[in-house]
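[job 4471] stage=fold_predict status=RUNNING
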Amino acid sequence: MKIISEILISKSQFRDLVLDTIATSYLGGFQFANLCETVAFNAVKRGYVENPYGINDTTFIFDMSIKDKEKLRVLVNDLMKEDILKIGNAYGKAWPYLGLTDSYNNLPR
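[job 4471] inference complete, writing structure tokens
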């Protein structure tokens, strides 16, 4: 699995990218590592970063840079403080399992 280059977008764009990723991929719950990979995939798909495998390659598994994982960890923490995410879901009750709270459904889209 190749690491994408750092996602150089604004904090609000990064938040939107993450929330859109959760909305389209993980309504049942997820793990932090899966979220990293899917956010990286969506960053490539949206053209925020280049596909590290090449333009015509159909490989869809990417990893985030250490800097982006830290930005994501901070955002996850912020989303927990905002009561949008919680630790635990149907698959596991502790970190790294994450789930959505009912407040998530009230976010503007």
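[job 4471] summary: The mean pLDDT is 89.
[job 4471] exit 0
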